[in-house]
């Protein structure tokens, strides 16, 4: 069986599962106690003037940030079902054994945030996956390595609970995003939980230095649905593709031929516009990973941030954030 035949069995698995949700901007600034009392002139955060009187230093309330994100992580698939055109979906989980599934994403993330309360930051964000690349390795009933690439767009919202004293801070971030990949029928939802603890080292050489460590838990929607045309499977010709398909089918034992007989028959009697539909149950192989990060404060307004994730999932976030005061007075 040649590579173009095997591509039929793998390319209906566009497994870029919208992990661009991890492009959430690392939020290191937090209210910091232990300072002299100051006067707070801005409307936000609510009660900001009260906590400033007690010597708690607050970040500027409004922020806009742009981030670049790279992510590499393994994916697991527990169920695969396939249908042709309007035919019934057939579970092929017993026919296919996956050896390795890996997803890489390059993405941009735009985020706007507000310190609503001294301990609560809320934000909205938009994601653009420049390239989501999925590497699929099948071990049985044949060996195959295939790579699929697709872009995507999405967005979401979240909140960060934060507090700090004497230069130390702690944050807990929660966010939800939905990302629509080019080859998927519906947006894929992602949930992230990210605790962090860190230290503000203060200003040195006119620059504020902040460092932190943390962890991230990622959860994605288990179900993914999509479709692909037979003409997009990369065969040299329709007839050659059907010949290879029948070769694979005839090599199966009778019990397994019975499972895929309807699918193979529809494809063999169709044309290049035949559509293969798929339905997958998947999960992140390693829900948790570790984080280390830093923020460089060029001023109260301009901040540079970087964060690296490791152990189970590799990710890199590089970003710039502009903060401003906004409305003055009080509600």
Word description of this protein:
- The protein has 331 residues and is mainly beta.
- Strands 1-3-4-5-6-7-8-11-12-13 form a ten-stranded antiparallel barrel.
- It contains four helices and 13 strands.
- It has one domain: Lipocalin (Beta Barrel), CATH 2.40.128.
- 13% of the residues lie in helices and 55% in strands.
What is the element layout, followed by pairings?
Blueprint: H1 3-10, H2 48-53, E1 62-84, E2 90-91, E3 97-117, E4 120-140, E5 144-165, E6 168-181, E7 188-204, E8 207-220, E9 223-229, H3 238-250, H4 254-269, E10 275-284, E11 288-297, E12 302-310, E13 314-324
Antiparallel strand pairs: 1-2, 1-3, 1-10, 1-13, 3-4, 4-5, 5-6, 6-7, 7-8, 8-11, 9-10, 11-12, 12-13
Helix pairs in contact: 3-4
Task: Describe the structure concisely.
With 331 residues, the chain is mainly β. 13% of the residues lie in helices and 55% in strands. The chain has one domain: Lipocalin (Beta Barrel).
């Amino acid at each position: 069986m040649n590579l173009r035949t095997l591509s039929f069995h793998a390319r209906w698995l566009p497994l870029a599962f919208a992990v661009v949700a991890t492009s959430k901007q690392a939020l290191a600034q937090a209210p910091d106690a232990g300072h002299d009392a100051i006067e707070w002139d801005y409307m936000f955060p609510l009660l900001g003037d009260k906590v400033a009187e007690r010597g708690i230093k607050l970040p500027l309330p409004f922020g806009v940030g742009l981030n670049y994100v790279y992510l590499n992580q393994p994916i697991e698939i527990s169920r695969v079902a396939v249908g042709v055109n309007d035919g019934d979906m057939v579970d092929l989980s017993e026919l296919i054994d996956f050896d390795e599934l890996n997803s890489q994403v390059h993405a941009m993330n735009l985020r706007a945030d507000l310190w609503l309360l001294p301990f609560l930051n809320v934000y909205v964000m938009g994601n653009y996956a420049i390239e989501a690349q999925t590497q699929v390795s099948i071990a049985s009933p044949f060996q195959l390595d295939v790579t699929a690439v697709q872009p995507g767009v999405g967005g979401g919202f979240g909140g960060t609970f934060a507090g700090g004293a004497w230069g130390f801070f702690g944050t807990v971030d929660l966010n939800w995003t939905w990302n629509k990949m080019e080859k998927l029928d519906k947006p894929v939802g992602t949930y992230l939980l990210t605790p962090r603890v860190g230290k503000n080292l203060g200003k040195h050489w006119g620059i504020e230095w902040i460092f932190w460590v943390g962890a991230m838990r990622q959860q994605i929607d288990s179900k993914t649905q999509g479709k692909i045309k037979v003409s997009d499977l990369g065969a040299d010709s329709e007839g050659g593709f059907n010949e290879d398909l029948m070769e694979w089918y005839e090599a199966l034992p009778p019990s397994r031929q019975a499972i895929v007989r309807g699918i193979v028959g529809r494809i063999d009697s169709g044309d290049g516009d035949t559509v293969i539909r798929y339905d997958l149950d998947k999960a992140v192989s390693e829900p948790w990973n570790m984080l280390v990060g830093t923020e460089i404060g060029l001023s109260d307004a301009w901040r540079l941030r970087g964060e690296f994730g490791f152990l189970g999932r590799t990710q890199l976030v590089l970003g710039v954030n502009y903060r401003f005061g906004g409305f003055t007075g009080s509600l």
